[in-house]
């Protein structure tokens, strides 16, 4: 493809607003988004490059407004380090060559339409998996709903292992950033959670502590064995027997 033809085929995005500085709607959502993004970048051993983002515009059309998922994950994509260029500051489907594999929406109220318009729209643009987390149970008793695209429609599923992504999802009760709550976490096929950077550091520190304790116990056992041998030798000498060296 010639350079002139490539320029002609590149959509004009000069009119598109890629950032409007709209804040997240609540503290839980902000923390949950960080947990989902940071843990993958810290610990996921993906076989392909990936991009996971929170509150970043997902543009699928030059003329229609973008989606802004709470979290999305796109696999096998290369991200340019030049963030100054407008075409690199958001997820333009025509630039990356495909839509993300997964979108997660976190329900904050009853007007977000996560199980209505968003469900239909994400299916229409080809998002393979759509996940709805309802932490405050605004939409019903179910906290986590997972949908898989089959044809042009989503099908609800109970299985939370996402084969095409190579990740699973699980609800975990624990402390994150000083707050105890029920959090949505990534996991591997065996159900082991993908740790955050802080969790990995704590695990490494615990392993080092255990190794140090094992070393201390081994040294103490060796000292005690030497002490027993010394006492036995003294007893033998007291009986007129010279112990063998």
Features:
245 residues; alpha+beta; tt1808, chain A; 2 domains
Describe the structure.
The protein contains five helices and eleven strands, in the order ααββββαβαββββββα. It is α+β, with helices and mostly antiparallel strands. The chain has two domains: 3-194, Alpha-Beta Complex (tt1808, chain A); 196-245. The model is unreliable at 1-8 (pLDDT under 50).
Regions with little confidence, pLDDT below 50 for 5+ residues: 1-8
Spatial order of the strands in the main sheet?
Answer: 1-3-5-6-7-8
Largest sheet: 6 strands, mixed
The CATH architecture of the largest domain would be Alpha-Beta Complex
What is the C-alpha radius of gyration, as a whole number of Å? 28 Å
Total helical elements: 5
The geometry reads as elongated
Structural class: alpha+beta
Mean pLDDT over the residues: 86
Distance between the termini: 86 Å
Q: What's the total count of β strands?
A: 11
The residue fraction in helices comes out at 25-40%
Output the helix-strand order: HHEEEEHEHEEEEEEH
Number of domains: 2
* The top level CATH class name of the largest domain: Alpha Beta
What is the CATH topology of the largest domain? tt1808, chain A
Strand content: 15-25%
């Amino acid at each position: 493809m010639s350079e002139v033809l490539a320029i002609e085929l590149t959509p004009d995005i000069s009119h598109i607003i890629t950032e409007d500085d709209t804040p997240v709607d609540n503290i839980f959502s902000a923390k949950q988004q960080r947990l989902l993004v940071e843990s993958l970048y810290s610990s996921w051993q993906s076989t392909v490059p990936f991009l996971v983002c929170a509150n970043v515009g997902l543009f699928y059309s030059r003329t229609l407004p973008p989606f802004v998922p709470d979290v999305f994950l796109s696999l096998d994509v290369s991200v340019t380090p030049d963030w100054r260029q407008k075409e690199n500051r958001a997820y333009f489907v025509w630039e990356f060559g495909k839509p993300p594999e997964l979108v997660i929406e976190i329900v904050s109220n009853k007007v977000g339409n996560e199980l209505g318009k968003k469900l239909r729209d994400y299916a229409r643009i080809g998002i393979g998996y759509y996940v709805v987390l309802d932490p405050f149970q605004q939409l019903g008793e179910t906290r986590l709903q997972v949908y898989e695209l089959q044809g042009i429609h989503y099908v609800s599923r109970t299985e939370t292992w996402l084969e095409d992504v190579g990740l699973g999802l699980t609800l975990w009760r624990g402390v994150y950033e000083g707050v105890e709550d029920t959090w949505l976490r990534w996991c591997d096929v065996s159900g082991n959670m993908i740790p955050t950077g802080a969790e990995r550091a704590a695990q490494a520190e615990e392993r080092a502590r255990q190794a140090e304790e094992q070393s201390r116990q081994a040294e103490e056992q060796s000292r005690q064995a030497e002490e027993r041998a010394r006492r036995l030798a003294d007893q033998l000498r007291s009986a007129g027997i010279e112990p063998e060296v």
